[in-house]
């Protein structure tokens, strides 16, 4: 690609993607108009479609791959690497797609777009360790004046947080924002640190006044508001959390799986804490009912199932469970293997929880628990399943087992106990005291 205007659009698209900017597709569209024969642009278009996790968009991603393939004559290795990554993603082999991007980075370690794409795919795979290794391998190749250094530091901050280095993650995320004030990913990495260290007040202080760092975002902005709502919930500010749900988190009633996951997991947390959320589940179940055949990501499927089981959409739940079983039985690629493990057990647990069968829910969710990392997402996002497991155990009277889970959850948070864990330990203590009193009067 030699057209100067096209290069400007490529760089603008890359920067917008790094910042989770709503302008990303605008710049990509202009790029394709200016350089319709640029294979890498078509590959990136396909990857962007595929990352949306929607079955109906895979055809668009496949068409982009066909166009890219037809333009590979004379393409350089970096372009071919992007096309190969798309090919593997469409085959459900995300690990191989990461390998293609890492090959690009081995040859061109300062390729920030390839870095972010690898980071995004590892996030879907739940590969926090690989995410960190990838970032740290290229970090020495980013000079202080590299245009992408701030965004790289934001990715490093998130990888550090997901691998338990909370203090370094907070410092690195703050450095990222200094270099790239619109780096919503780095800002949200610091929010994750506050979540994992039970510092909700500090998290609110961090986010308050920095709204411009995520105002420019695509629907990722809803996710940052979600983090703020979680902090409010931990502080007992449930009315404020619900206000954020209505005014920001579900300001747009989309069926994007990331928006559905924000909404379902927040409502679930609120209800587990005894908050009446009204009829807010209904629209989520209506939307989820249309996504039962997606099968693009187990992370998405489990959140759809959370809404469906909550609202007793038995027919839709049955469709999804049948499809999950069929996908799991094949297990020929990364996506299907995650449908099998942890997918099926987690899904059975959610279904049982919705039915009020807490013994079965606890058993199934406990079997899924050691493997939930592979469902993708972050520790904070997967914590809704952790909470459901713990609360199912409490309702099933499995207090000793629940105490083990609570201790392990706190240990993985650097020994920091949040409001949720403290409240559950108090429930167990009250149950034990009640049992002692009953024993004494028997």
Shape: globular
Query: Total number of helical segments?
Result: 24
Protein structure class: mainly alpha
Order of helices and strands: HHHHHHHHHHHHHHHHHHHHHHHH
Low-confidence parts, pLDDT < 50 over ≥5 residues? none
Q: How many runs of DSSP E, i.e. beta strands? A: 0
Mean pLDDT: 97
The termini sit apart by: 84 Å
Using the CA coordinates, give the radius of gyration: 22 Å
Biggest sheet: strands, sense, closure? none
- Helical proportion? over 70%
Approximately how much beta-strand content do the residues carry? under 5%
Structure notes:
The chain is mostly helical. The protein has helices spanning 4-18, 24-34, 39-50, 58-70, 77-90, 94-107, 112-125, 128-138, 149-162, 166-179, 184-196, 200-207, 212-215, 220-234, 238-249, 257-272, 280-288, 298-310, 314-330, 334-355, 358-368, 379-395, 399-411, 419-441. It is globular, with a radius of gyration of 22 Å. The chain starts with a helix and ends with a helix. The model has no long low-confidence stretch (mean pLDDT 97).
How is this fold's topology laid out?
Layout: H1 4-18, H2 24-34, H3 39-50, H4 58-70, H5 77-90, H6 94-107, H7 112-125, H8 128-138, H9 149-162, H10 166-179, H11 184-196, H12 200-207, H13 212-215, H14 220-234, H15 238-249, H16 257-272, H17 280-288, H18 298-310, H19 314-330, H20 334-355, H21 358-368, H22 379-395, H23 399-411, H24 419-441
Helix pairs in contact: 1-2, 3-4, 3-5, 4-5, 5-6, 6-7, 7-8, 7-9, 8-9, 9-10, 9-11, 10-11, 11-12, 11-14, 12-14, 14-15, 14-16, 16-17, 16-18, 16-22, 17-18, 18-19, 18-20, 19-20, 20-21, 20-22, 21-22, 22-23, 22-24, 23-24
């Amino acid at each position: 690609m030699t057209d100067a205007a096209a290069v400007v659009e490529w760089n603008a698209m890359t920067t917008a993607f790094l910042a989770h900017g709503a302008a990303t597709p605008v710049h990509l569209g202009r790029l394709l108009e200016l350089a319709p024969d640029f294979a890498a642009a078509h590959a990136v278009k396909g990857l962007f479609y595929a990352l949306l996790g929607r079955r109906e968009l895979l055809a668009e991603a496949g068409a982009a791959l066909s166009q890219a393939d037809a333009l590979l004559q004379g393409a350089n290795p970096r372009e071919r690497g992007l096309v190969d990554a798309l090919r593997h993603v469409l085959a459900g082999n995300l690990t191989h797609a990461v390998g293609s991007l890492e090959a690009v980075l081995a040859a061109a370690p300062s390729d920030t777009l390839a870095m972010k794409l690898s980071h995004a795919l590892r996030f879907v795979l739940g590969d926090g360790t690989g995410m960190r290794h990838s970032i740290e391998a290229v970090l020495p190749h980013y000079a202080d004046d590299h245009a992408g250094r701030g965004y790289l530091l934001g990715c490093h901050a998130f990888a550090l947080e997901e691998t338990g280095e909370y203090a370094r993650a907070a410092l690195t995320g703050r450095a990222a924002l200094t270099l790239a004030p619109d780096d919503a990913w780095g800002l949200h990495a610091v929010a994750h640190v506050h979540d994992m260290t039970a510092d909700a007040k500090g998290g609110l202080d961090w986010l308050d006044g920095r709204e411009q760092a995520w105002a420019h975002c695509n629907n990722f902005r809803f996710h940052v508001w979600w983090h703020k709502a979680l902090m409010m919930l931990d502080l007992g500010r449930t009315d404020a959390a619900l206000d954020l749900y209505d005014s920001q988190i579900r300001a747009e009633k989309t069926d994007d799986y990331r928006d559905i996951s924000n909404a379902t997991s927040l409502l679930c947390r609120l209800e587990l804490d005894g908050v009446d959320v009204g009829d807010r589940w209904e629209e989520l179940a209506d939307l989820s009912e249309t996504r039962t055949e997606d099968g693009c990501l187990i992370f998405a499927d489990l959140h759809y199932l959370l809404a469906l089981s909550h609202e007793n959409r038995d027919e839709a739940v049955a469709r999804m469970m049948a499809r999950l079983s069929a996908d799991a039985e094949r297990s020929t690629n990364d996506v299907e293997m995650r449908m099998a493990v942890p997918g099926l057990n987690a899904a059975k647990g959610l279904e049982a929880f919705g039915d009020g069968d807490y013994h079965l829910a606890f058993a199934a969710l406990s079997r899924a628990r050691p493997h939930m990392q592979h469902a993708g997402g972050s520790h904070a996002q997967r914590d809704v399943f952790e909470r459901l497991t713990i609360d199912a155990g409490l309702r099933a009277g499995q207090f000793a087992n629940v105490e083990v889970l609570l201790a392990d959850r706190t240990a993985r948070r650097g020994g920091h106990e949040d409001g949720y864990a403290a409240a559950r330990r108090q429930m167990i203590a009250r149950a034990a005291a009640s049992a002692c009193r009953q024993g004494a009067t028997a």
